[in-house]
Structures are given as structure tokens and as C-alpha cells.
Description:
The structure is a homotrimer. Chain A is mostly beta strands. Chain A has helices at about 1-10, 95-100, 130-135, 175-180, 205-210, 285-290, and strands spanning about 25-30, 30-45, 50-55, 65-70, 70-80, 90, 95, 110-115, 120-125, 140-145, 160-170, 185-190, 210-215, 220-225, 230-235, 240-245, 255, 260, 265-275, 280-285, 295-300.
Amino acid sequence: NISTEETVFKPHEGVNQSPIPLEINRLNENEVQINMTAQITDIEIDKGVFYKAWTFNGEAPGPVIVVKEGDFIHFSLKNMDPAVPHSMDFHAVHAAPSEKFIDVMPNESGTFTYEASKPGVFMYHCGTEPVLQHIANGMHGVMIVTPKGGYETDKEIAREYVLIQNEWYDYNNLESMKNEEPTHVVFSTKALKTDELNTNGNAFSLKEMPLQAKVGEKVRLYLNNVGPNETSSLHVVGTIFDDVYIDGNPANHLEGMQTVLLPASGGAVVEFTVKEAGTYPIVTHQFNHAEKGAIAHLEVTN
Amino acid sequence: NISTEETVFKPHEGVNQSPIPLEINRLNENEVQINMTAQITDIEIDKGVFYKAWTFNGEAPGPVIVVKEGDFIHFSLKNMDPAVPHSMDFHAVHAAPSEKFIDVMPNESGTFTYEASKPGVFMYHCGTEPVLQHIANGMHGVMIVTPKGGYETDKEIAREYVLIQNEWYDYNNLESMKNEEPTHVVFSTKALKTDELNTNGNAFSLKEMPLQAKVGEKVRLYLNNVGPNETSSLHVVGTIFDDVYIDGNPANHLEGMQTVLLPASGGAVVEFTVKEAGTYPIVTHQFNHAEKGAIAHLEVTN
Amino acid sequence: NISTEETVFKPHEGVNQSPIPLEINRLNENEVQINMTAQITDIEIDKGVFYKAWTFNGEAPGPVIVVKEGDFIHFSLKNMDPAVPHSMDFHAVHAAPSEKFIDVMPNESGTFTYEASKPGVFMYHCGTEPVLQHIANGMHGVMIVTPKGGYETDKEIAREYVLIQNEWYDYNNLESMKNEEPTHVVFSTKALKTDELNTNGNAFSLKEMPLQAKVGEKVRLYLNNVGPNETSSLHVVGTIFDDVYIDGNPANHLEGMQTVLLPASGGAVVEFTVKEAGTYPIVTHQFNHAEKGAIAHLEVTN
Ligand SMILES: [Cu+2]
Ligand SMILES: [Cu+2]
Ligand SMILES: [Cu+2]
Ligand SMILES: [Cu+2]
Ligand SMILES: [Cu+2]
Ligand SMILES: [Cu+2]
Ligand code: NA
Ligand code: NA
Ligand code: NA
Ligand code: NA
Ligand code: NA
Ligand code: NA
Ligand SMILES: [Zn+2]
Ligand SMILES: [Zn+2]
Ligand SMILES: [Zn+2]
Ligand SMILES: [Zn+2]
Ligand SMILES: [Zn+2]
Ligand SMILES: [Zn+2]
Ligand SMILES: [Zn+2]
Ligand SMILES: [Zn+2]
Ligand SMILES: [Zn+2]
């Protein structure tokens, strides 16, 4: 496709912008300032396999954002891409998409405000056309909106992690994204606190550097399946989810589940207890996808 | 396939029967008479792309039917297809399929009675073998059975629409329906009252003629994903579902969801508030499918 | 692939081991002994089509196992496969996978203990790498853990059956399992009591030998979709699920559903009433899969 060749491939040739850290500053009790970038950054999606990703802040998925239920968000997006417009669609907010999820041109910035009205584990993503291409190329991530009243199981939780599933397709190939199987289906985790593990969506990091827990602990995962195309049948080998909150809303409480089915863009909070020391694989039980990378390890020690 | 050539393609050549309106008449407090047709009618599934659909009443999906929980239905199906038997499988009723969902021969009529026992948003479809072919060719639709006690959120609702997702495949190609990707995944809406918008399942109508709402309103959608093959990850950009009733049953109440996962033939009632003026896309967040047509627009004005 | 040729195909050539019955013995109020085999056994997946399956106890899916919530399980796996290691991953238990779901070498036995901590309809499967291959070749099944307090609808149930969905792919072809459509999607039932119907996952048995019920009865199905790759949109034609317990946990109660969406490895208890005599097809409403075999019949008589 000549148009893609001239408008995307050539301008991105040799471009590999260093990740710019997310900026998030609380202005007061109910307002936060969030500054992000759209940028072109190489992501190692499998050992030695690099994807020239379209990213938020040089990560794919982008950095996790944590706000509180009811926060007003002042958001700024700086588009560092030399060639392609990008934008931001936060599932966590109420906003008119045609006004506030609009394109920011190359080398420009856009600012927007909206409210994070409801608690949960929400996807964010670039909403520029064709949306499939922008998500599949890496422009996705998770915003956690913590509930005002908490979760009824908050006091039982010893640790918590973010876990995100995403797919990779043939590079920037819209036809492949529409009609073919993903080449990789992968997991990533994102640091909730400084110094915590923070990985891109790849087939190896969460096997080489397992998530950690201690025997007897109850562990919480903030899950989202950012797609762009597939559902996820999320399962932790060796345990059962004591508690599940669909889309992370405290009202949507299920119990004793072996597997949680996440829609494309769907979230959940899942909690489980690890009773013995050892390694617990986390998988999508759609095992063609696990085979393509979607296995993480949780290491449980005494 | 010679058999298909002689039994389907040739008899349908040049046939394009004008839509016959659905007839629904209330006989008394607990009984309704419903008369429908099976007919061959050209449907424009994309701009300039016509599909010689197998339809109920010349629409694909067929007309929406609204009855009350507990209604007895007297149903008549007139098969106007010159060549192929058809039938009616209502998910909303309790009935012996081998007695009451049976084939009606070409140019004949069949009459059946059954009860709409439970409230919800139910699929209906032709149940003639091979069922996959009859559904994929257009013989599907939605029956809403309104709950005796209503929904607990009824008083908050300012408007309501029907939204249906269906797939189209290579024309009448059973092998494609079984093993290939859909060529189009589309939405339609169906008029709940006279003069309301009523569209077929295509890639353009609900972009050219958006659904309408006013700022501050709470909008309800009656959803069903009639398939035949794919799940749907239903999402409205720019808002969050305040309330969700799985399969439309008032007992199955979830809250604060970004996305609802509909099984093939699954329904839901979803409700959301639009707080600002602008255009809100409605999508399946399985974005390969959105890319193939499954985007509708909701226009919100002051 | 030469490695597969030498390590799998040649050693399995001509091997067809007779099914060894499951051994399950209650030791006391809270302990059971379960002895199973891993064995190579031909399974007729469609009329005249045989698959040299990797099985538990010569069945695919393996035999149903019923224990009580809180039971300690003493488990022994005898690997009769002359060439390939196998293992057992019970979704129903809390256990360190790296210790208790480990490989048992050809012609050896392994013993393990763990607790069935929570009630539900749980998948079990071989967890040996590549897991996709071991599941797709037939090493899957269901363990029912009956809830201490029962289900709130227990007294209404007249009969109950196990129904399992699984997929078959090109024989032992990992590339096909990863990237192609299944050749067959099928149902099976498993005997809960001696002399009850017990079938393998094939396209014909549950059409030739329908499940049975009487007019007016409420029927319960213990469902699991063992995959390995696809979701299931489980629906019974001619009726509506009165009650659904997601993953079979009594706390996860939904009502009035037309279709239940099962993740890969997901379970459910569904209950429905049959009001008239006749044949009721049970399908996955992902009709490409129903077309490939996933239709069972329920025969309802006066
Ligand atoms: Cu973008
Ligand atoms: Cu498993
Ligand atoms: Cu038909
Ligand atoms: Cu149906
Ligand atoms: Cu979105
Ligand atoms: Cu095995
Ligand atoms: Na797929
Ligand atoms: Na497990
Ligand atoms: Na597909
Ligand atoms: Na949104
Ligand atoms: Na498929
Ligand atoms: Na039905
Ligand atoms: Zn790889
Ligand atoms: Zn547990
Ligand atoms: Zn609760
Ligand atoms: Zn098109
Ligand atoms: Zn059939
Ligand atoms: Zn809202
Ligand atoms: Zn409620
Ligand atoms: Zn076959
Ligand atoms: Zn109940």
C-alpha cells in the first residue's frame, strides 16, 4: 500500500524515541493532572523480536494510571510521532468523544478535562482511525479508578499486581489485524509503586521475572484484556479465584471461579489465595494464545 | 455444489420480494397474534453491496417483536420462498422444538402456539437445517419480553433503542460460514414505535442516521448478538454502563461496566448517561469486527 | 517434524490401549483415593473417523469425578503411554503446580495430595508441555465438587446430566491447533451413576442416544467447555435456563437466561424446565461449531 508506505513506514524509519515517564500530579482532593506522550518506540515482543510500536510514553501497553472515583482529570497528550495523528479514549470517563477524544496532530499537544465517574479497571487507547491499527500497534493501557468505599475484601489482600493481555499481529498490517491470527498473545505487568516490576507486552518477561507472593497470602490482580480482537479466559494454575469483581466494580461480586472471561477491553479484579510454595502459571486458557506467549509466572515462597 | 445450484441459486435468481410488514395484534390481556413471512429480499449490507438475503418479513435482522411476560403467542409463518423450507425458533418461549419449531414448506403456512414465559431480550431465528446457513443468510431477529415488575431503573430512562449485531459471510457459502472470517460485522436498530428508525444489518445506516439523545439523559439499549458465529464485546465510547441486565432479566443486575460480552444469541439491557453534547460511537471492541462495519453513532444534543 | 515423528508418531503406531476404569474410593468422611491412567486409545470422533487420542483412562474427555467440598484427594496417575510424559492439573484444588502437577514419565506412576476447596464444575487436564497439544489430543475432563450447603434449587431437580464441549484438530498437528479452525467441535456426557450413558466427545453419540427427561421436569446440566481454544455459547432449544450458577458456585446465581457463555475451561450449572414432549437440541449457538458436531439431543416424553 503506497499510502501507508509514504505516510507511515518512511517517516518512522529509524525512529526509536526513548520512553518519556508518565507525569501524574494531584492538584487537590478531587483533581489530577496527567501528562502523556504518543511516541514511536521499539518494543521487544519476543526474544530478539522487535516491533516498532506506536505507544503511550514509550511502553506498550502504556503506563498504568491510578486515580480515585470522582476525580476530575486534566489531561495533556503530546504527540511526538513525526507523521501520524493520535488521540486518547479513556474508558474511565464520561466525555463527548467528538470533542474530547479527538486527534492531536504530529508534533502538537492537546489538553482535555473529564471525570472518572465510576470505579474499576478501565482500558485506555488511541481512538484515531483506523482504531484497530492504532490499538494493535501498541496504543493501549489501563486506568484503575479506586472505589470510594473500597472492595469488601480489601483487608484480606497481601499484595496486588496489574496484569494486561494484548495481541501482536504482522507489523502494521491492517489486513492481518482484520483477518488473521495474532503472531503473539502476551501479558505485561505495570508498576503500581516506584521500583515495582514494569514490563511491556511480550512473551518472556513474566516468565524470566515472575510475580512474587508468600505462602498463605491472598493476592489481587487488576486485569484488563486490551485486545484488540480476542477475548481472554484468564486462569491461575493451582488456585481458584476466591473473589471476582467484574470490570472492577465492587457491586459486581462473584465467588469461587476457576476462570474469568474478559471481553475485548474488559476488566476485572480477581483475588486468590496461594497455599503452598512453588511456581503458579497464569494463563489465558484459550491455549492457542497461551502457546503464543500468554503465560506469566507467580513465584510463591515461604 | 450442484445441489445448492439447483435447489437454491436458480430458484432465487431474480427474486426480490417486497418487505411484508409484521402483523402483531393483541387478542386480550394475555394473548397475541403474530403473523410473519419468510421471504427472499435483497439487503444492502454495505454501500452498493447487495445480499440476496433469506429474511423474516423482508428485513435482516427481522422486525422487533414486543410482548409481555406471560403472553400466549399465536404464531403464523407464511413461507413465500419458492424453493427452500423455513421455520421459526423463538428463544423466548417454552415449546417442543420437534413439534413447534418445524419446517414450513415453500408456499405454505404453519401455525403454532406457545408462551413467552420469562422476561428478556431474546433472539429468534430460522431453525431449518443447516441452521448456520439460514441464520447467516439473514433469518434472525429479536423478541423483547417486557418484565411484569419492570426493571428497577425504569423511571430513570429517557429513551430506548434496539441494537442488534450480526455477521455476513461470502454469499450463501456454507464453507465460508464454517471456516472463514465474516466479510461484514454490522449493527442495526429496529423501530419500537411507528416512525422510529428501522434499519437492516449494514455497515452504514447507523453512521449516516445516528441514534439520538439529549444531554443528561439516561439511554437504554436492548441488545442482542444474533451471530451466527462470533461473540460481541459491546461498548459505548465516552460513557460507562450504569446498569446492565444480562439477557434482559431484571434479576441479573450488574453495574458500572465499560463493556458487555454477549455470547452468540445472547442479549442484554444496558443503560448509560450521556453528559455532554457530541457524537458517541457504539462499537464491538473486538476491533477487527468494528473495522468491518460494527460501529453505530449516537448523537447527543443540547 | 522429525522430532515428533520419532518421539510420538512411531512409538504410538498401532498402540490402542483398552480403557481402564477410573478408581475412586472414599477413605473416610473427608478423604478420597483417586487412581487414573494416562493412555493411548483410539476415539471415534465422527462416524468412521478415529483419532489416536491421548486420554485419561481411555476416554476423551476422561471420566467424570465427583467429590465433596473440602475433600482431601489422594491421587495416583499411572502413565501407560510408552513414549510421552503426562501429568494432571485439577482446577478444583489448591496446590503448587511446580510440585503437584508435575510430569509422570512413561511407564511410571506419580502420587499427589491436595484439597478440593471450593464447590463447582471444574476442568481437569494434562499440564505437560506443550499443554495445547496434550489438551487438544484428548487429555481433559471434569471434576464436580458438590457444595456443602447444596444449591438453593436442589429440591426442584428431577434429573441431572454432565455435558462437556471439546474441540478436535488435525491429528496431533500443533500448527493447526495454534492457527486453524477445529475440524470438529463436539459434546459428550459422562455417567454420574453406574449404567448411565457415558460417551466420548464425538459428533454423533448424543444424537443417536439422546439424553432423557419427562414432561414437566426440571433438568440440571453440569457444564464445562474444556476447549482448548474456543468459547461456548451454550443454549437449549425450546426452553430457557431458570437458574444458572457460574462455574457451579452456589453464590453465582443468575436467572432466566437463553444462553450461557463459557470461557475456555469455564463451567456452569444450568437448570431448565421442559414443558412439552419432543426433541430438544442442545447446541453451542456459535453455529459454525454446532455445524461441526456440537449438537446433542434431549428427548422429552410423557
Ligand atoms: Cu494512535
Ligand atoms: Cu487449566
Ligand atoms: Cu430458513
Ligand atoms: Cu437458537
Ligand atoms: Cu474503547
Ligand atoms: Cu499429557
Ligand atoms: Na482467533
Ligand atoms: Na488451576
Ligand atoms: Na474470528
Ligand atoms: Na468509552
Ligand atoms: Na474460531
Ligand atoms: Na430456545
Ligand atoms: Zn514468539
Ligand atoms: Zn481459594
Ligand atoms: Zn460481595
Ligand atoms: Zn464493506
Ligand atoms: Zn443436524
Ligand atoms: Zn455513567
Ligand atoms: Zn439490581
Ligand atoms: Zn466429521
Ligand atoms: Zn434462585
